[in-house]
Design goal:
Two copies of one chain form a homodimer. By secondary structure, the first copy, chain A, is α/β, with parallel strands linked by helices. In chain A, 50% of the residues lie in helices and 12% in strands.
Chain lengths: 464, 464
Amino acid sequence: MSSDQELAGLRQEVADVTKEIIDLISTRNDLAKKIAAAKVKGSFPAEDSRVEDALVRVVVRECEEKGVDKQVGLKVLSTLLAESKRVQGFQSKQALITPMMMSAKAQQVEATGRQLLRLDVGEPNFHPPKAVLDATSEALYGFKTHYTGARGIPELVSAVRRYLDRKHQFVAKDSEVIVNPGGRFGVYMALSTAVKEGESAIVIEPNWPAYKEGLQYIGARAISVHTTLEEGWQPSADAIHDAIRPNTKAIILSYPANPTGAIISPSKFMEIVGVANDHKLTVISDEIYTDYAYKPCQSILGSGAEKFILTSSFSKTWAMTGFRVGYSVSSEETISKMMKIQSLLVTCVPEFIQYGAIKALDSDPDVAKNSEQMKERIEAASHELDGIAALQYVKPDGAMYVFPQAKKADFDCVGFTMKLLEEKGVTISPGTGFGDYPRAFRISLGGSEETIVQGIRKIGELLT
Amino acid sequence: MSSDQELAGLRQEVADVTKEIIDLISTRNDLAKKIAAAKVKGSFPAEDSRVEDALVRVVVRECEEKGVDKQVGLKVLSTLLAESKRVQGFQSKQALITPMMMSAKAQQVEATGRQLLRLDVGEPNFHPPKAVLDATSEALYGFKTHYTGARGIPELVSAVRRYLDRKHQFVAKDSEVIVNPGGRFGVYMALSTAVKEGESAIVIEPNWPAYKEGLQYIGARAISVHTTLEEGWQPSADAIHDAIRPNTKAIILSYPANPTGAIISPSKFMEIVGVANDHKLTVISDEIYTDYAYKPCQSILGSGAEKFILTSSFSKTWAMTGFRVGYSVSSEETISKMMKIQSLLVTCVPEFIQYGAIKALDSDPDVAKNSEQMKERIEAASHELDGIAALQYVKPDGAMYVFPQAKKADFDCVGFTMKLLEEKGVTISPGTGFGDYPRAFRISLGGSEETIVQGIRKIGELLT
């Protein structure tokens, strides 16, 4: 047989095998339809995550036996699972009301001329440090209006390194730092480099919706570790251990936490890092609220995590939400992957903004003042909440939120949020936006103390 | 049989079918290895895009016959093709030297103190309009430093609409516009909404590398329509027609073109739009250089394209590269998808920058001045190139580049680029970064006329 005949024959076989795979997807779809019918007949729940877990194990084992790359097997499984759900007619879950949606809603109402007490948006009402405004404007008029390298201007990278050394006694190399266009993009790049389609990551509930949204965008699964108000929003290392699947690649931590304001003890943090190390998981630590912490808060830097990504931002500490600038710290290898993503998607952060950010890192008195004010707001909010018998809450250790929970078992946080907006002109974010918390809601402490106190009083009025 | 037994049985069947699919991937991998061996034996080329085309047809046909969602089949095929290539030991193509890489390289050299004549970077050396600097700074000091909606501030969206009406007599609704953080992100969002993993899009070569990079990032295939200097860099509608595969979803146009400066005639543009309409393709039109056009240049707006996305940016016309701000125009449905992606990945464009951008849209005299200067640079560059016998080129109709080509058949653009940097201190971008153009290179006209003239003279010196 000539070598081109041989090649043609082999290619025909590849086409046949490919066809067979499509046929098996079709068979799988037929089974999915039968399963949907059986579920209806037996009144079984539509979704059962244990079924998915079992399939992940089947695929991982089969890939190992047959020498197929596990990532390939898991990616195909992810496509198959999505197709099964489509065929079974799964309704995509009712769109959650995230803080971002509440903010959009509030802006719409405000545009009609109605004044609101805004307790929804995670944005401090402090002003950015004067030095930041001056440096940004000076850079702008100095024509720092050009492309920069994807990592960020060397002066800002150095400033971040000095800051990490001063704050965390962590000595980073330039190659371990990247300046990014804000916390969300930092989280996206962290997830993209640590978790692939068909893999999974652990998130501690309640949490900022961006983690789950990011995982879903990538085609990866979020495995939630549920924590409760009764346990002080503390996750146990055991629960995290039990959540690990054969395709789990990362665990996302963020303390002080959004929306609860909880901080876990350094020893608990280290215990979780130990579990991550044992299972070769990347710890993604979102430390954006680290300057609003009123008890010791362990950083991932210096925690002994073997694989880690720190993401942070200038938004909260320095009230620079509208600057869209942050940074990530990780291994040279991971940062180098992030630089490729950043080059491809956004080129770089605006040059003059980077010059402004340098000054933020040198403005400790502003940070101290903001932090002190946030502490006062936590006290004021707690004092008000203490007077509302229908609610319970855990006093925040940090961050800029309180996450109270109604004592009433059938409380509907979404209905309450809408009624509160309508009748009292106060905006909050429903608990279901942060996980399985239908009785809870988030109060942001970003506004003035007066706004917070007035807003919480109106919440109390509606509850009595 | 009880309904839970029935369910358990069906789930076992699903697991078995899933296992079979993994086994078939393993079989496919074995075949891929045999194919690799047969290729070596018969000295066949490693990659053959016709084989991939044939498989796409097999999968599409089989999906249609068996009622499997085509997108699912194509996505699985895309995973299988990548795995086959890995198993066959395909070397990923030698990393191309893109303009962005040349710019990074040039910055490294400059950091050592060496002065360079920079003809690499696609960045005009004009200053942003004074009104833009003032408005940006004023907004900054006015504490326009907050989150905005994902679409952009209403004032900028309105300004874009007025601009489109004035420039293209196109009446857009607010819901058809989104402000984005620059051209790259605009292109990424356009590709993401128009093309899915396993699908394909047509690009006209030579082109800005971001299109192919973006498609690759999504897991989609770029089908190149090669154009030549001899044909004046004009693609034929027939060639585009022939490039359409059963999984082709979009065609990317960008005129005036980077790197050639070519503009296609309005009638040719309309002909291509007609082909796209016939095949229900989305036309993605990157119109970033539209103000550097020295003969009539058709916009996608008003072209009759049934599905289209316009992307543009403030970077080139107003010399605002370092602001990272642009905009896209499309159907309400597509823009709404983009808003989801933008909310998830970057939240919004910095607020005070959006205020600056409004003023750019009102600065026609600056645009006219920049455009006039760019025309002079094209004339000056052409005059210099006319004196270099070893090169041929097509005089640009617009944009801010020239793309000359060596007459010598075995010219190596990468080697020449490196030698030029080393020996003459001039930076250009090799032609291979833009497609299959080993004899060509891109000269940017972003620098001063003196830089351009001196740089081209040194190119001439090295060539003789």
